[in-house]
């Protein structure tokens, strides 16, 4: 066995050597615990939502973000707000189910909502994730129409609802609202067609890259980890959006992480190299 000793024979080098080894060991353990904690503890900001958070001022602010209300003056927006009713939901509650009568238009004031469509085989396809200021439901639905998706809260949420009959009165009163609703309906139809094309023709790696870039554009916030997608996002959510299995999604995400394109933890993802993900999603 080799032994280290100081020239003076007092064992000083041995002591310093083992002290350094012990320090490094402790530092490595500390780093590992930090990384594990960072993976377990979500960095997403999701403050508890109480009734007083859905104030009139907040309602007006988020209604003002809805595309077809953006041209309204403040007093007009206040009149429109009176036609909406507020409802509070806990995390994981169903707002409406696919196949229910389409009678309401809704706006997210606080929290996050996801829209899921189910196939005849019972498989879910995640259509969209919504944030405050987003509307959902079909603003042009007729009396016999039904919802084509299920709406479920991802976090505690405050949702505004207006009956479609009342919304039609708003469109009759404000022509600018009706014009934008027509444009949005056309845009959504085109987006649906494009989504179907992506799901049926693109390789899964490109689909997931495209989804991550889209979510980062809509929900991304700069963070020490990268561009943090500010909403709960599980592997199953991504799989449902990409139209693939959770196992395949995990493999693709692991490769993205190994390539230093993303970093992720329990139900959160941060984008580290958005240009490269864009390149992957667009390459032929």
From TrEMBL:
It holds the Pfam family HTH_Crp_2. The keyword Transferase applies. One of its GO terms (cellular component) is cytosol. One of its GO terms (molecular function) is DNA binding. SMART domains: cNMP, HTH_CRP. Keywords: DNA-binding, Kinase, Transcription, Transcription regulation, Transferase. Residues 202-275 form the HTH crp-type domain. Gene3D superfamilies: Jelly Rolls, Winged helix-like DNA-binding domain superfamily/Winged helix DNA-binding domain. CDD domains: CAP_ED, HTH_CRP. The keyword Transcription regulation applies. Residues 68-171 form the Cyclic nucleotide-binding domain. This is cAMP-binding domain of CRP or a regulatory subunit of cAMP-dependent protein kinases. It comes from Fodinibius roseus. The lineage of its organism: Bacteria, Pseudomonadati, Balneolota, Balneolia, Balneolales.
């Amino acid at each position: 066995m080799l032994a280290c000793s100081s020239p003076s024979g007092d064992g000083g080098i041995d002591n310093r050597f083992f002290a350094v080894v012990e320090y490094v060991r402790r530092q490595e353990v500390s780093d590992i615990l930090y990384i594990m904690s960072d993976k377990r503890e979500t960095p997403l900001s999701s403050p508890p939502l109480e009734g007083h958070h859905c104030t009139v001022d907040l309602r007006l602010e988020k209604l003002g973000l809805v595309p077809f209300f953006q041209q309204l003056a403040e007093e007009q927006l206040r009149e429109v707000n009176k036609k909406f009713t507020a409802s509070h939901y806990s995390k994981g509650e169903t707002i409406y189910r696919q196949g229910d009568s389409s009678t309401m238009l809704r706006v997210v004031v606080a929290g996050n909502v996801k829209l899921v469509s189910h196939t005849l085989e019972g498989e879910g396809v995640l259509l969209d994730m919504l944030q405050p200021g987003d509307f959902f439901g079909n603003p042009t639905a007729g009396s016999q129409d039904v919802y084509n998706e299920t709406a479920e809260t991802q976090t505690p949420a405050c949702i505004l609802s207006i009956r479609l009959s009342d919304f039609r009165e708003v469109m009759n009163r404000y022509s600018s609202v009706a014009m934008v609703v027509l444009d949005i309906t056309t845009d959504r139809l085109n987006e649906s067609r494009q989504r179907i094309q992506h799901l049926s023709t693109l390789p899964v790696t490109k689909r997931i890259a495209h989804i991550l870039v889209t979510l980062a554009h809509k929900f991304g916030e700069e963070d020490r980890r990268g561009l943090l997608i500010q909403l709960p996002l599980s592997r199953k959510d991504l799989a449902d959006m990409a139209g693939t299995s959770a196992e395949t999604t995990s493999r693709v995400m692991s490769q993205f992480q190994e390539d230093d394109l993303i970093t992720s933890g329990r139900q959160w993802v941060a984008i580290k190299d958005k240009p490269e993900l864009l390149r992957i999603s667009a390459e032929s």
